[in-house]
Amino acid sequence: MFFLLKRFGTAKGILLSLLIAYLLLPAGFEVDFPVIPPLNKYTLTSLVLLIYLIITNQPTGYKELKGWHKFVLMALIVSPFLTSITNQERYLFIQGLSLYDGLSQSGIEFLNFFPFLLGVAYFNTYDRQVLLLRLVAIAAVLYSIPVLYEIRMSPQLHSTIYGYFPHSFLQQYRDGGFRAVVFLGHGLVVATFLAAGFACLFALHKAQIRAWRFDNRLLLLVLFVTIVLQKSYGAIAYALIAITIISLFSPRKIHLASVSIATIFLTYPITSSIGIFPHQEIVNTAESLSPERAQSLNFRFEHENTLLQHALKKPEFGWGSWGRNRVYDPETGADLSVTDGNWIITLGTGGWLRFITLFYFVVMSIYLAYRTQKYLRGSEDEKNKQYLMSVHSLVVALILLDQMPNSSLHPLYWLVIGALFGRYKKILREWQVNKVNASLK
Hints:
Elements lengths: L1 H7 L1 H15 L16 H15 L11 H19 L13 H24 L3 H28 L3 H6 L10 E2 L2 E2 L8 H20 L9 H14 L3 H16 L2 H23 L5 H11 L1 H21 L30 H30 L8 H22 L9 H30 L1
Antiparallel strand pairs: 1-2
Helix pairs in contact: 1-2, 2-3, 2-6, 3-5, 4-5, 4-14, 5-16, 6-8, 6-9, 8-9, 8-10, 8-15, 11-14, 11-15, 12-13, 13-14, 14-15, 14-16, 15-16
């Protein structure tokens, strides 16, 4: 990792480090040392980057946050302490939480979030924004090679190289074939990453920016075929949404679409908790299209509702870790719940405080990107910047949308989100400077 930072410079080295760690290191493996948070491929990468920046006296990005944003970050980091304080009693056969659990979880929270600060500090210019989208797109194209291999041969690379399989093998079998897992832990996580890479690549293609040495159209074809073969309806939908919105909409309407997606994400837990979201109507509509998918959707909704009712018993700070957010049979101890969506996991483990403070930065980045429209007007150069801001915002919105059915909000995506937030701050500063200079003339 230090080699990458020295060889390619801090910004590109950070991005390459996160990409390589995310895509190639083993999933589901961590080392739990005393005092420090458990180290897995996410927390270890963030910790090494943090140490490197401190040793070399380079910005960590924390000072880029001002006022309210800094307060929300502090609330996010402190929230596990409040959860541990309010969960010291046993829950059925599961032990209560200690202050040590709160300290450990706070460390994990910060290290997982840290790439957001790196995105704000090191990817806030137009050129760095292009670099980010290009490298994510190229990484997705390259990753399609082992993905296609596992689709054909079964998900076996993780077992072959690291000696164990990180998830249920049976869950990767779909429609007479396999979903690839490679080193990401689950086939749906792989599909989401490919869809994010596809959206980045399609955005560059529409902006007439060559992503790699090959024709963008060829790379798009390879990625789309791989996504289809991965057998994830969600990822296929994300790719089609990206194609439709980027192809047909103006930058302003792309921003509006992103804000709409963010609004749907925020209102879904609220409307579900008060019982007004039309779950049954959606299942009925799905049944007319595919009874199998309708059954799967109904299964998901039922488990979400069970977990939501459990979460609302401790709405402020949640149930904490050790599986306390799940529902069990009180007599046998059997686990009765299936947790998929990041939103319900976050709400169950950390309550509304963690849900609001965690997703605040994602939603706020999308909203602030929408506001850049009034700062980027006039020249052709500013129109190009505005277009890239709009498609970057859409990529972040699709990542956010995936947190409803899945849990894929990892440090690499936090970097992408932080870069969008940083671009807004950079554009705003440039606009303010230009306004002052114009008034002095």
